[in-house]
Amino acid sequence: MTKKHTRDGLRSLLENDYDVYVAPDIAGAIDVLDREQVDVLLTDLRLGSEDGMSLIDRALKMPRPPALHHDDGLRVGGCRGGSD
């Protein structure tokens, strides 16, 4: 899973300008996606025993999918994800 200090660092960097929701695992992230309108999703593809692609697939099926970015630097959202 993404290490807590990395999540906390990203939160500190972004929280003054954005509403930031942090989840320690896929279940927590899905809970946030179900409750909140998320514009951008930052995720790691290697989430311990979980697969970050399942989170990305879930986000892409949302009525208004967030722009997506994962840890290897490839753009996942694009036109397919509605971020353009």
How would you explain this protein's 3D organization?
This protein has helices spanning 4-14, 26-35, 52-60, 78-81, and strands spanning 40-43, 46-47, 50-51, 67-70. It is built from 4 helices and 4 strands, in the order H-H-E-E-E-H-E-H. The model is unreliable at 73-84 (pLDDT under 50). It has a two-stranded parallel ribbon. Strands 2-3 form a two-stranded antiparallel sheet. Helix 2 packs parallel to helix 3. It has 84 residues and is of the alpha+beta class. It starts with a helix and ends with a helix. The chain has one domain. Strand 2 (46-47) and strand 3 (50-51) form a beta hairpin. The protein is globular, with a radius of gyration of 12 Å.
Nearest-integer average pLDDT: 79
| Secondary-structure element string | HHEEEHEH
Global morphology: globular
| Share of residues in strands | 5-15%
The largest β sheet comes out as:
2 strands, parallel
Enumerate the spans where pLDDT stays under 50 for 5 or more consecutive residues. 73-84
Distance between the termini: 29 Å
Number of strands: 4
Query: Which structural class do the helices and strands define?
Result: alpha+beta
The helix content is 40-55%
Number of domains: 1
> Helix count, per DSSP?
4
Biggest sheet, strands in spatial order?
A: 1-4
